[in-house]
Design goal:
This protein is of the alpha/beta class and 507 residues long. It has 3 domains: 227 residues, Globin-like, CATH 1.10.490.10; 101 residues, Translation factors (Elongation Factor Tu (Ef-tu), domain 3); 157 residues, Nucleotide-binding domain of ferredoxin-NADP reductase (FNR) module (Rossmann fold, 3-Layer(aba) Sandwich). 34% of the residues lie in helices and 15% in strands. It starts with 7 loop residues before the first helix and ends in a 20-residue tail after the last strand.
């Protein structure tokens, strides 16, 4: 998926908003209220009239997330008042009128949202990545997202690429339609409590209607994917066995995963670049955690491969809980839960000319989805020119060097350009490590390796967010249209694992 930098702050904000409301593994018990926290109206209709409380028709039955996701009827998941009624112009005006209040009090709203929800439902603590919660990063991201949604309430269509991105993560985690009612309730409660009397019944209803319009889009898209997955025999979480564990560098280890149930073989194919979610028990936390990891090999009928970097922390961030657990405790023979491959960042061969050059640019562990693309292209014996451009912090941290160079030896259309910041003494610049230093596209031949004058060339970029933005800016500065630059997103607002190395390590 290509990204328009002009709208990047909006994309990141909306991603963070929807990631923040993702309910990944555990249930949200319902709460019964007789009075609407927004309008103060009774939830019980009188004299046969329609309920006046925005929550009155919300289906707050407790979702059973111990089961696999099943297709949901979008029309039944959305409360009756909001199923087919569009936002009125007056409701849109009210949402826009609340923008100044959101600018001033957005962070207070989202802090309260998380605090109240977690106090009332401590079981929800297992869905939040601790690194994203540190220093109020997630509440701040959510506050920015709510504001961005309000600012684009007239026309949310520019946000659809981001919606599709988040849908893939929701599906990967098994998010189901009935989760949205609970999340909407707590979010509107927080808005009402912080803004107080400023939240009139009309404004409360406008925000509830706006929330459900967004939720309805998600519910419909997710339901269609679940239906397709069910028809193909793999839906929801499945048990996989670690059949092989291979150390690729001092930081990165590959895990080969085979399904426990033979019915899942041959495995459903995936597109190179897509990811899976891995779910494990974290004993010290007392609950499960899930993380997303890009598949690092081409589609295989017998196994999936992920290559995970162990995050040790750098002072500003805590060590990665799941990555550390995978590295330190998971051994061959162990069972983990895996969801089906999904994702919108992939090599889309249907849209690329057969002779179009392919430039794969990665930093650090961002090489994993691009390795899948390279392996897929090699297996297909494609003749298109391919350039592999990779930056690593050190020789010891660099993964797949020998493999990538072996691919290049067997396929003359593949070129390898490696940047290594801290080079081992035994390596010779220009021979072993190619280029010493941080990755710099100015040092890569513009025509024979970057193909900048070829308007068919496609560029896939993966790594820490600042790395990707730097690479994108460099390519755009050389005349590459943004539609030909495809990036996977890391960090709080992305779908690849949030446990990634710092941008400083590869820039």
């Amino acid at each position: 998926m290509s990204i328009n930098i002009k709208n990047s702050h909006i994309y990141r904000s909306i991603i963070n908003f929807l990631n923040a409301i993702t309910i990944a593994q555990e249930t949200m018990p319902s709460e019964t209220n007789n009075t609407c926290p927004v309008s103060g109206a009774s939830s019980t209709p009188t004299n046969g009239a329609a309920p006046t409380c925005p929550f009155a028709n919300a289906n707050l039955s407790q979702p059973n997330t111990s089961q696999n996701a099943t297709p949901s009827d979008p029309n039944l998941a959305v409360p009756e008042p909001y199923r087919s009624t569009p936002l009125t112009e007056s409701q849109k005006a009210l949402i826009k009128a609340s923008i100044p209040a959101l600018e001033s009090h957005g962070l207070a709203i989202t802090k309260l949202f998380y605090t109240n929800m977690l106090i009332a439902h401590p079981e929800l603590r297992n869905i939040f990545n601790a690194s994203n919660q540190a220093h109020f990063q997630q509440p701040r991201a959510l506050a920015n997202a709510v504001l961005a949604y309000a600012q684009h309430i007239d026309d949310p269509s520019p946000l659809m690429p981001t919606v599709e991105l988040i849908v893939s993560k929701h599906v990967s985690l098994g998010v189901q339609a009935d989760y949205y009612a609970v999340v909407g309730e707590w979010l509107i409660k927080a808005i009402a409590e912080v803004l107080g009397e400023a939240v009139t019944p009309e404004l409360g209803e406008a925000w509830m209607a706006a929330y459900w319009k967004l939720a309805q889009i998600f519910i419909g898209l997710e339901a269609s994917i679940y239906e397709k997955q069910k028809s193909e025999g793999w839906e929801g979480w499945q048990d996989f066995r670690v059949v092989k564990k291979v150390k690729e560098s001092e930081e990165i280890t590959s895990f080969y995963l085979e399904p426990v149930e033979s019915r899942l073989k041959p495995l459903v194919g995936f597109k190179p670049g897509q990811f899976i979610s891995i779910q494990v028990d974290v004993p010290e936390m007392g609950h499960r955690q899930a993380r997303q990891y890009s598949l690092s090999d081409s589609s295989n009928p017998d196994y999936l491969r992920v290559s995970i970097k162990k995050e040790t922390g750098n002072g500003a961030s805590a060590p990665g809980v799941v990555s550390s657990l995978m590295h330190e405790t998971k051994k061959e023979g162990d069972i983990i839960r895996v969801s089906r491959p999904v994702g919108v960042f992939f090599l889309d061969e249907a849209k690329i000319a057969l002779d179009a050059p392919l430039v794969l640019i990665s930093g650090g562990v961002g090489l994993t989805p691009l390795t899948a693309m390279l392996n897929h292209s090699a297996a297909q014996n494609t003749t298109r020119p391919i350039s592999w451009v990779h930056g690593a912090r050190s020789t010891a941290a660099r993964a797949f060097k020998q493999h990538v160079e072996d691919v290049a030896k067997l396929h003359e259309n593949v070129q390898v350009i490696l940047f290594t910041a801290n080079v081992a003494k035994e390596e010779v610049e220009g021979v072993e490590n190619h280029i010493q230093g941080h990755i710099n596209l100015d040092l890569v031949d513009k025509e024979t390796k970057l193909f900048l004058s070829n308007k068919k060339a496609e560029y896939y970029v993966c790594g820490p967010m600042m790395f990707m933005l730097t690479m994108e800016k460099a390519l755009q500065g050389q005349g590459v249209d943004s539609s030909r630059i495809h990036m996977e997103k890391f960090g709080t607002g992305g779908i690849a694992p949030v446990e990634q190395e710092s941008p400083k390590s590869v820039l």
